[in-house]
Fold each of these.
Amino acid sequence: MRINEIFYSLQGEGFLAGVPSTFIRLAGCPLRCKWCDTKYGWDQTAGTHYSIEKIIQTAGQYQSKFVVITGGEPMINPDMSVKSELPELVRKLKACDKHITIETAGIAFVPDMPCDLMSISPKLRNSTPDDPELVAVHEDSRLDIAVLAELIDHYEYQLKFVVDSQNDLEEIKQTVEEIGNVDSEKVMLMPQAVSREELLAKSPMVADLCTKSGYTFCQRLQVLLWNNERGT
């Protein structure tokens, strides 16, 4: 598997925000969202090939019980080997008594993984790239209702939506309705923000949308605490 980085930090988002966690970032993502804060992980070659044993060994140097497999998009791999290697990685991490979160846009389904939390962030229209050359690919792949429904039917989950303006709420409600069988208590709204200043400016608006909709406000600690600066 091509690994972009393995590091130790606090989980920044979702119901486990604030929990010390080991992050395993897989390389490669086809979406190219315009507000993505990990663009360095887009390229499928932006990393180093690790055996599963080396991933386990490297992650094991950190003492956290919580492991987050992220990207990029960890459920997508150009040669599709992820469909066998990713479940094997998750099984071996579980054998080490780890709590496993997989962070995904929900654009591919991989079965038979004993992960504890599928953290799904469906991409809204507000994620469309500004570059016209990237728009078509993004729009063709950013949202797959059938895959989202399959993920929530097979895994413990949370749904996190990035909110850029008040107008996004209607699209979020429509997406949740189309997926079907969604537990509204597992739906979270988080401000679109690439800086601490932007996060603080948009948080009251998102908080207001949460009180109106009943959805949960999702903090972004990586922005609040470190201004979205990449660790060293």
Amino acid sequence: MVGDGSKAADAIKRFDPDVAVLDISMPGLDGLGVVRELRRERCRTRIVFLTIHEHEDYISAAIASGADGYVLKRRMRSELIHAIEEALAGRRFVSSYPAIREQESQR
């Protein structure tokens, strides 16, 4: 566990994990910035966001940044493991909050 986005990016680059779980709201470099930096550097680590942000702008920004999963913290117990498994299988996972599912199906 790290304390801010820059440290998260550094740790991911250093340890090269298969998957990392990040929050969007982190001190310094936010989670979206971390993912953009990692993708720019062609880092293979799959990223799953675990966040309180339910607004469609956050979801769209997360997917556009290159995230592989998006799980709401209130759905963590029922969805986080599945989201990680989906990301590792090369598939995208978006939390089952009704408004999020509707947005995803319209794409």
Amino acid sequence: MDRIVISDLLVRCIIGIRDDERKEKQDVLINLTLDVDLRKAGKSDRLEDSVDYRAINKQIMSMAEGSQFYLVEALAQSVADVCLSYPEVTEARVRVEKPAALRFARSVGVEITRKQPG
């Protein structure tokens, strides 16, 4: 399977369970690997034969920046849902990280894999 990769997408959102985390937006990094059959696009060189990853990117940024999740897990699931709303995406691997969430750690995060139903 072919893959589209989006690396280190930086969004700012309200996320966390502590009161201080819910007052101001925090930096969150999102990494995606999307399984897509890219053979047709590779031959035709036409966007309509591929997945518009710019549109996916914009939709994820809009959703995340307007969100107020308590858990990184919930944000990751919502990102996967956005990706899988494109029927050409058969599987989405999503990693969401909160830099500096833990003292003495560069970041903490979750990684999930979701597939199209059926």
Amino acid sequence: MSLSRRSFLRGAGVTLALPFLPSALWSRRAGAASCTPPRRFMAWFAPDGMVMPNWTPTTSGSTWALTPILAPLAPIQDKILIVTGLDHQDIASPVPAPIPAPTPNVEGCACFLNMISIDNDDAGTTRTSLDQALLPVLNAGAPPLLPTGLQIALQGDNALCGNANCNFSRVISWSDGAALPNIYDPQQVFQQMFGASLTTGAPTPANTQRASILDAVVAEAQSLSLKLSPSDRLKLDSHTTLVRGLETRLQRLGMSSSAASATGGSCTSPVSPAAQVTLRPIESSFPIMIDLMALAFECDITRAITFMIGEAASSNNYQFLIGGPNASSQYNLSQAEAANLAALTTIDTFEIAQAAALLQRLDSMIEADGQSILDHTTFYMSSEVADGQAGNHWDMPVLIAGGASGGLRVDGRHINYIPQMPFPRPFVGPQSSVETGRVFISILQAHGIMQDTFGMATGGPLPELMP
């Protein structure tokens, strides 16, 4: 008999995925062998580059001081890598360029996770992003509830497509040339995760009529609780409390009529969102998205997530952080970088703090083998450009965390492929000969996909990343 590590509560057409509960598994079959934890992948897109002088550590190796922007990562510094000196300028901006040439931000977003130029595959079928390339391995054995992954973003259409198909500025997940659109509304992410069919992944009709998912499964939750060990009972209580809290927070945000509600009292059927997406404030939606992504991995709802803080040339408004007029978008601030250095550093630090919060959550979730979910996750964070004003695709800011269940060597180092970098460093540093795509090749090989190219990237894995 094959045993799944996943447990569910079911009631009246609703299915609620649960975190791993060892005593629940044991109760289903005495003497059950422990399950091997699944591996997971997450790509995190932070738009408009970073203030690189406030990002780059001044020393390499295992002993380096956290910079202002990287300071929030202190609690998990031993489970990250900072990689300096990665370059994919020739892929993002090939010569000769198409006419009219896409803007640098759109060029960088188009190849962010697939390493294929816009003009090389505008309408082709070869563009597949790293998350999708990993799915056959990640989903081996019992597949998760949502086997094609979750594509999530905070911001929608800003009406800037940069002389290219708009998908290239708004999407980072691709499958065989097809753009996989993002979900922008936390409520829709919640419904996809906790009101989805086990067979199709589609929202269950019963869920669109219900005041609360937990109300539908409360009887089974109480019955299961009696069979659990004290520690698992606490974990179940914590999980249901968090789900209930998410429902409440989503209600307070105000549910749009264009989405099927999992929490409101009066619900409508789902309809396609309008072309211009109405955005929720970043300060309220960001923490909810963090909770949802953590639960998606903890409950084995999916094993691949792509997350975009904003689209290429983001118009995200960080007035709640830095003050100033509403028109001061992140992209506009980056175009006058020197004059807005403090504001941009504050924004960059805030974005890294959100990533650090998620990584710490994953590191606190312990699996059946005694390791954390973060230990079994590969996390990749970067941007479409290195410097927002220059629009360059070399000297990229790259953060790796997790470790692919031991397949990668992620141990707190700063790896610097530009040893001649001067400090204090310039906004744009020198180029190196190390391709960004070699990180992706390393991740593929860490998962047993033994190829030496990915997209248009060549060169094999990076030895410094391999065990």
